Amino acid sequence: MKKVKVFITLKESVLDPQGQAVMQSLHNMDYQNVKDVRIGKYIELEMEDSADVAEQVDAICDKLLANTVIENYRYEIEEEVHS
Amino acid sequence: MKKVKVFITLKESVLDPQGQAVMQSLHNMDYQNVKDVRIGKYIELEMEDSADVAEQVDAICDKLLANTVIENYRYEIEEEVHS
Predict the structure, then answer these.
(1) Which of residues 26-65 of B touch A (CB under 8 A)?
(2) Torsion angle of alpha carbons B37, B38, B41, B44, nearest 10°?
(3) Assembly and interactions (chains A, B) (predicted)?
């Protein structure tokens, strides 16, 4: 089995109102040293081994997980160790 | 400046209906080899340097970003390089 960690982030040029709201809350809580907040998604997939896992993850991100007009994605594939 | 990457995930024992819905969609798209999907949050904070950044991030996660009853969090603190 493979464990795939997918990180989806808004592109630099896209406004992040959710992140701005969180930053405002942090400022209200006296964390003035927080200068920027960007909120994305973190998705863990558990997949059966196959030769083309990376290609499949690319396709899954492009088709379903990410909106590539406004979001970037990157991923890490790890071998899952069963004890 | 420090760049802090925060990963928030549901605890193992907590059901993830959003992840199950994504997995069902992937199965409908013929990705039968996806055996589990868990959906979390990925948050990037940009913070001014200070001696207690790690403590501050812990407090921020506990108080605002994560619901520690059902979620775990971890984070990485990186030095931000300005070119």
Answers:
(1) 26, 29, 31, 33-48, 50, 56, 60, 63-65
(2) -70
(3) Part of the FGAM synthase complex composed of 1 PurL, 1 PurQ and 2 PurS subunits.
